[in-house]
Amino acid sequence: MARTAEYKINKDGDLWCVSIPAGIAESGKRERKYFKTQILAKAFQKTLKGNLRDHGAKSVTLSARLTMDALEAEKLLSKIPGTTLAQAAKFFIKHHDEAAKCPTFAQAFDESIQRREKLSVAYHRDMKSLRKRLPADFLATNIFELQGTDIAAALDSCCGGVTHWRNAFRVVRVILNDQVKNGTIKTNPCDNCHQPRQRRTAEVVIYTPEQVQSVFDCCREYSTGSNRDCKACAVPFAVLFFAGVRPIELTRLHWSDINGDFLRLSGEITKTGRTRTVHISPTLRAWLDIVPEDQREGKLVPADWEDKAQRVKREAKICGRKYQDAARHTFGSFTVALEGIDYVRASMGHGHTQTFESHYHNSMTIPQAKKYLEILPPTAAENTEAQSA
Known about the structure:
Elements: E1 9-12, E2 15-20, E3 31-35, H1 38-55, H2 57-77, H3 85-100, H4 105-115, H5 121-133, H6 136-139, H7 148-158, H8 162-182, H9 209-217, H10 234-243, H11 247-250, E4 258-259, E5 262-265, E6 276-279, H12 282-288, H13 305-315, H14 326-339, H15 341-348, H16 354-359, H17 366-373, H18 378-388
Antiparallel strand pairs: 1-2, 2-3, 4-5, 5-6
Helix pairs in contact: 1-2, 4-8, 7-8, 10-12, 10-14, 14-15, 14-17
C-alpha cells in the first residue's frame, strides 16, 4: 500500500513553512511554502491532503499554486455568504464574454463617425478634434468597463469650460447610445455621470446693424488674396440674418426650396429632422431678388462658400469664433421684438420657448429691431429713400 504523502509544518524564524515532497510538487522538486501564521499553514496543509485523497496526485501537482489562489479566493468570497468558487468562476466568465464583444471607446468613436459620414464638414471636424484631446487610456478602455466617473474625469482633463465640457459630453453620450442600440452594452454609463452646472450670466452675442451692413458691404470682388470673388455671398448671408437658419442648414438649401413667400426646410435639411417653413420678409425678398431669375438654380451658397464667408468676415472685422452663431441669434433677437416668441420658435425650429426666454426675451426695443430690416441691397435702398422723399 502506498504511503500517504506528508506535508510537514516547521517554524522557520518568524514564518511557518509547509514542505511539499518532490514527487507531488508542481515543479518536480521539493518545495516550501511560507505563511505568516500557523493557522494559515495548517489550512494549506489540510487542502493539499484533501486534494490528494479525493482526486489523486495529479490534483496536488496542479494545485500547489492553484491552492493558494483558492485559499485567497475563498477568503474574498467569505464576504458573500453561500457563494462558491465555481459560481464566482462562472460569473467571471460571463463578464469576460460580455466584455469581449465590446469595442474600446476609440473603436466606438470611429464607428460613430462612419455612421454619420453624411453630416457636415464642421461636425466631423469637431468630432475628430475631441477624439484627439481625449486621454489615451480613456480611448483604450473597453466600453463595458466604463463608468460615469471615468467619463467625467476624461472630460475634465480635456475641456476648458462648462460649455465645452457639456458639448463634449453630448458627443460621448451619442457614441455610447449607438452601442446600446447595437446591443454591445445594456445601459449608457453617461446616465450615471454628474454634469457641471452652467450658470448663464452673459447675453448671447449678436451683430449690430452696423456690423450686418459691413458684412454685406464686404460681399464684393477683391483684386488680391484668395477667394477673391465674394459677390455671391450676399444672398447666403441674407438668409442667415433674415431667416435664422443654421449654418449647416444653409449649405443644404437650394433655390427650389423657395416657394412663394416661404422658405421650406425639409427634414433632410434641418438639424432636427423636422420640416419647417420660414416666412420671407420684404427685407429678405429684396436680397433674394438681386439674383436674376434665370440664375436661380442649384444651391443657394456659391462654390467654396465656407472659405469665402470667412474672408468676408475677416474683411468686415468680425471674429469668426466669437460670432459663430451670432447671425441666427441676431435674427432671433430682432424678430422676437417684432413678432413675439411663438413666431420665432416656429421659424427657428425649436420645440420649446425656454431658449428664447433666456436668450432673446426683451433683448431689444422695437425701434432697435426695425433698424435691421432697413438693411437692404443698394438698389432697393435707393428706391426706398426715393419713395420716402
